[in-house]
């Protein structure tokens, strides 16, 4: 399994697979053809259907600048593609083709280059590739997950994750300070600042918790929708869940930056397992692969922060993902706004609830995290294509810019 650094990428929104991945591919291809006087990008599948809403064309032109770049939204049937997020990049010089590559943007900002197997294989950091294997290793050597991570990643992983946490913190705090309308034409107003500033301490503390956690999730997700700087966890579209939970418990539990780094590390393990053994791509497996995995990461992080044992941590992650199975990806007009922002807030609360359930019921469970990952992946493959980030099904089909 690859390093947990792989799951946390710092970049700008709104989409890891539709903007970060294609932009990364464009920079790589541009550097390979410095003599080109024109580039062309042909988008297929989900990249074509929702690329305008996600800003794929903008991201590609920015990456190729100052060289001219033509972006084509292909209507070719995507069923012949290996991955629904596929694009061709072509370099030209004085009207003659210099070269081309086919790229798959597989989620979380990662790309696969067709025909370049060596480039596609990231360095392996962990020998274990399932949670069952991780659990066996930890039990045999009497170590917990934090010790296991440090044994494989080295002690500098915690400094890296503290840096990740600082970016997450800024995204929460900047989001809480902003007002106005999000770009894209849906006339969606930012809500995080209003929600946070109107918290009323009542005799119902659970409502206060909900309002705080949700305002933090809204803050990060609104930053993402407005092309702000965020951290994939595991993707841009699901970037609000994990920081919302940790930002809330940092003060409530008086957690240090190192405590937070440990929680992020444990969360990263579950995210990497999902990326390796299933998917974190909404275009491949629906929103269960994005917000569902984010919820499992946040639940695991909360359990680590609470001092729960390894079985409780796994159970919380499993419960979170299990109850997102079948969740479709249906962004209205291809924008990461509705239902995405609200969905991050709901998932943040579900992560906390899953952690609470795990405290009491871990010994009664029947389903493992590895099992629910397989189930999520097969459910995603069985899901109708319209519900996998095409903006053709679900809410995206019913709602228009006029609200009809």
Automatic annotation (TrEMBL):
Residues 3-60 form the Serine dehydratase beta chain domain. GO terms for biological process: gluconeogenesis. Its EC number is 4.3.1.17. GO terms for molecular function: 4 iron, 4 sulfur cluster binding; L-serine ammonia-lyase activity; metal ion binding. Its cofactor is [4Fe-4S] cluster. Keywords: 4Fe-4S, Gluconeogenesis, Iron, Iron-sulfur, Lyase, Metal-binding. PANTHER family: L-SERINE DEHYDRATASE, L-SERINE DEHYDRATASE 1. This is L-serine ammonia-lyase. It comes from Vescimonas fastidiosa.
């Amino acid at each position: 399994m690859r390093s947990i650094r792989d799951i946390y990428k710092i970049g700008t929104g709104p989409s890891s697979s539709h903007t970060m991945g294609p932009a990364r591919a464009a920079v790589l291809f541009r550097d390979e053809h410095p003599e080109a006087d024109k580039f062309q990008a042909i988008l297929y599948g989900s990249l074509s259907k929702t690329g305008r809403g996600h800003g794929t064309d903008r991201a590609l032109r920015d990456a190729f600048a100052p060289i001219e770049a033509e972006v084509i939204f292909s209507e070719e049937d995507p069923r012949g593609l290996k991955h629904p997020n596929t694009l061709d990049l072509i370099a030209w010089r004085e009207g003659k083709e210099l070269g081309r590559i086919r790229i798959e943007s597989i989620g979380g900002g990662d790309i696969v280059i067709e025909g370049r197997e060596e480039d596609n294989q990231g360095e392996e950091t962990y020998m274990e590739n399932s949670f069952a294997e991780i659990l066996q290793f930890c039990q045999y050597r009497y170590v917990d997950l934090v010790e296991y991570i440090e044994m494989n990643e080295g002690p500098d992983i915690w400094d890296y994750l503290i840096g990740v946490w600082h970016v997450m913190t800024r995204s929460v705090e900047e989001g809480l300070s902003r007002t106005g309308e999000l770009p894209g034409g849906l006339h969606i107003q930012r809500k995080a600042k209003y929600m946070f500033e109107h918290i009323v301490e009542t005799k119902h503390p659970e409502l206060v918790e909900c309002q705080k956690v949700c305002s933090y999730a809204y803050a990060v997700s609104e930053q993402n929708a407005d092309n702000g700087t965020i951290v994939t966890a595991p993707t841009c579209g699901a970037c609000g869940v994990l920081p919302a939970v940790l930002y809330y418990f940092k003060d409530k539990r008086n957690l240090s930056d190192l405590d937070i780094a440990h929680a992020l590390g444990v969360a990263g393990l579950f995210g990497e397992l999902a990326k390796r053994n299933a998917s974190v791509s909404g275009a491949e497996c629906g929103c269960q692969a994005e917000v569902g995995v984010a919820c499992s990461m946040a639940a695991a992080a909360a359990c680590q922060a609470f001092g729960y044992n390894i079985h409780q941590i796994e159970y919380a992650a499993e419960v979170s993902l299990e109850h997102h199975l079948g969740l479709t990806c249906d962004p209205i007009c291809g924008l990461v706004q509705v239902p995405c922002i609200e969905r991050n807030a709901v998932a943040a609360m579900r992560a906390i609830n899953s952690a609470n359930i795990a405290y009491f019921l871990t010994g009664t469970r029947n389903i493992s995290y590895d099992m629910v990952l397989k189930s999520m992946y097969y459910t995603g493959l069985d899901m109708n294509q319209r519900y996998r980030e095409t903006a053709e099904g679900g809410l995206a089909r019913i709602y228009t810019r006029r609200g009809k």
